[in-house]
Amino acid sequence: MKRLLLLVAILMISYVVSGCYTSSLIRTSIDPGVIPDQTYNVTVYGRFMTLAYAVLFDVPDDGRDVYMVRTPYTESVGPDSPGQYIQEFDRRIKSYRTIRISDPDGTERAYLMFSNILNAWIAQAGERIMVRVEDAGYYGDHAR
Q1: Distance between alpha carbon 13 and the CA centroid of its chain, in Å?
Q2: What is the pLDDT of residues 73-92, one digit of tens each?
Q3: Lower CB density within 10 Å: C or N end of the chain?
Q4: Where are the alpha helices (DSSP H) in 21-129?
């Protein structure tokens, strides 16, 4: 009986949590050169010794908050343009992915560049969009 109640509780919690993070976002792999050269709200995830590096470019003042989950390795840079980050990725990282995050109607909300040794999850929670970046090979990030 206790096991059945535990199973039901776990299933109900899973259902509620999955309902809170529904996502109709469109994630499209793109060439970094197509990121418009404008000012974005920039957040950086960086562990340079392992080349674990990611940059989130949030389109400002678009009515949607796109944010990177805070870790000891994230830093909110503030307003900046993507040019220097693209150059740094090309110079240092070399093996990386670039993703455009859009609404179903095609409205661009953010761009995410991250090295291939990282994992990235993108989820929608109400009007906010959450981006989580983790180094899959580093135990400390998974201990949270």
Answers
A1: 24
A2: 999 999 999 999 999 999 98
A3: N
A4: 83-88
